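To whoever picks this up:

The nightly regression suite flagged DCD (Development and Cell Death) domain protein as changed. Nothing in the input moved, so I suspect the structure step. Input below, exactly as stored in the fixture:
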Amino acid sequence: MGNCCSDVAGGQSAVGGTASYHTSSAVNAPNEAVEAFLKSRGYQGLYSQIELSLSASNLRDRDVLSKSDPMAVLYIKGRDGSLQELGRTEVVLNSLNPKWIRKYILTYQFETVQYLVFRIYDVDTQFHNIDVKVLKLEEQQFLGEATCALSQIVTKSNRSLSLDLGHGEAFSGPAHTRKFGQLTVYAEESVASKTTTELILRCSDLESKDLFSKSDPFLVISKLTETGVAVPICKTEVLKNDHSPKWKPIFLNIQLVGSKDSPLTIECFDFNSNGKHDLIGKVQKSLADLEKLHSIGMGENLFIPVSVGQNHQSKVLKSQLFVDTYSEKIQYTFLDYLAGGYELNFMVAIDFTASNGNSRLPDSLHYIDPSGRPNAYQRAILEVGGVLQFYDSDKKFPAWGFGARPIDGPVSHCFNLNGSSNYCEVDGIQGIMTAYTSALFNVSLAGPTLFGHVVTSAAFIASQSVANNERKYFILLIITDGVITDLQETKDALVSASDLPLSILIIGVGGADFKEMEILDADKGERLESSTGRVASRDIVQFVPFRDAQSGDFSIVQFTFSRTAFPIFSIHESQSKKYM
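Regenerated output under the current build:
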């Protein structure tokens, strides 16, 4: 084990597979390998392993004496518009209605719009004995193309989306009026990524490796790769002076292990503070084997490798490993809630206070650039709304402004962005953008900066949804350039709203001092308290300075997740049953 436990205090603690590790992984990381990769780059978010299946109907027949031999190719579109090929199906012979067997495995990420492009080709007979991976697509006949966001698929109740095949932007030539057929995409979340095994292990009659005391045993569980290399996946705590140890529960994600039948090596070591731990013995069993040991109530003898001349043998010990508890549990994910009919509803509130500067001047935060380059407010709306719009079925978004004086009226701290006095909703993200631009020409920037009114308006909509037993969760985006002047009133509104299915994302634009915003964002553990002494039931606010999000490679939404788990995914279990 080298020096993996050389830190005496930390080295005696369990690593991986603990209850806390299991809980955090269940909320944010059904795929722990992906989690490790992304977190190594300072990123944490909400993602799941997705398997895509494809079928098509009414494809064009490009062959003279037989039907087409279709193959599908999947691409993902980058932020710069470039396409990266993710995989190819097999070739289905003589079929205009193929159902491909080969699947695509993708990592779904909530906070990223993942645009997929599907292209269908008729593979010529002369290439049928060639691996599809090396086929030159330009030598095949193009049958059609379809595109969609992965979010569009997973938000369907049956996770199935039918798309009309078209000519495709990449293929020049005159437009075709005839139909190219349909492509159906079905998404299925990996069950293994959601299934966690709980184990309680103990040993009996361990041998002493210390001269004057009993051993200090701990277990290391490793999975075996195809090449036979052991990769550690978790370690138990160290139990002092114990030859019949029983360790705390271990939680293993089946996808992390590989499968229930994948071989595992369970090694028992005697802890030494110098990091050179002595092997007491080990067993090699799969999860299925451990389940069987538990069901029959029998132990498995440990063994230790020994060398006899040139031969490597195993010495069986009287020490035994027992499985006192074996259980499996499925952790429901965000996608499960979507499949159950839940949806997210997007709301936005925009700061129209005078500190933003005259919107007609280029140095204003509200300046509308004739070149089409979005200002900070527009970019925040596009990036956040661009992600959330797929999870809102009707795409009618409440939109407000605050801190401005409408024509011939007093300063308003919550006015409908569309100019209506009766309703606050606009149609789609483009509707928000149009209403925002129009409002700049119909109101006078004023002040002060107050949040309480818009928070109360959003909370009222959320409370009505609860009263109507709707399966909705609301996310309010507040974009502001300055420090609020109604801090306590805003705290009161947030504490009152903390029991509702509502989360609030505040984006600070410009160069102001946003220290008071950090107070509203209770990431440091101290929850907000109202003027009456009531403490918020949960943290519903996340604050992100726009300038910090601009400095990295992530979008605003991704940057939000890189700082902390967004409050929508930190609801207590009892609340999640009500809301998510």
